[in-house]
């Protein structure tokens, strides 16, 4: 099983021939007992300007000889434009080499109130944009917009746009250790990915 297939397999099961849905662990990731176990396992990262940044190491998995994911490989968090220079320095000290940005094209970029970061601060960091959704799709808007802050959103995202859900998983699988995976808030798209 290749890395992408392994990631997809751990995130989803086929419940019938017609329906592809996230596993129950994913749906409960923010509120259920399994979610609490994952939240407790993750290490908060102190990257100035970046709240909700966490190292995804120490998460339970049957795909590892140790029974858990390795620290220092993948971090998750909110939009990178919030980081101040000291935050970028801390991220590099953690081992940051690449970023997988899950936001749609119209969400990307410096916003009002974001700090000015010299271009040299980002030198050598690979950035890949791999949104798991197309927010211009009328079916996606109909089913997902009302529940974007709910884990239930992923059920519809998988059903409506499975080809787009695969894109960030492939980007993560192809990335080097030291990857930050982020969306806007660091929870709705980032947590499941």
UniProtKB/TrEMBL annotation:
Source taxonomy: Bacteria, Bacillati, Actinomycetota, Actinomycetes, Micrococcales
Protein name: Tyrosine specific protein phosphatases domain-containing protein
């Amino acid at each position: 099983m290749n890395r992408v297939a392994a990631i997809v397999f751990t995130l989803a099961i086929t419940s019938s021939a017609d329906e592809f849905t996230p596993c129950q662990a994913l749906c409960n990731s923010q509120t259920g007992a399994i979610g609490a176990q994952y939240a407790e396992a993750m290490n908060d990262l102190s990257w100035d300007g970046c709240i909700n940044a966490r190292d995804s190491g120490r998460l339970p998995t049957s795909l590892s000889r140790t029974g858990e994911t390795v620290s220092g490989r993948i971090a998750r968090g909110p939009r990178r434009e919030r980081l101040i220079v000291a935050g970028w320095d801390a991220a590099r000290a953690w081992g940051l080499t690449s970023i997988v940005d899950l936001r749609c094209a119209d969400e990307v970029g410096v916003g009002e109130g974001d700090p000015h970061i010299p271009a040299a601060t980002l030198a050598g960091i690979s950035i890949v944009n791999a949104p798991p959704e197309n927010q211009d799709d009328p079916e996606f808007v109909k089913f997902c917009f009302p529940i974007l802050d709910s884990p239930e959103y992923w059920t519809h995202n998988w059903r409506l746009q499975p080809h787009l859900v695969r894109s960030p998983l492939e980007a993560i699988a192809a990335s080097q250790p030291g990857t930050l995976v982020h969306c806007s808030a660091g929870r709705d798209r980032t947590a499941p990915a």
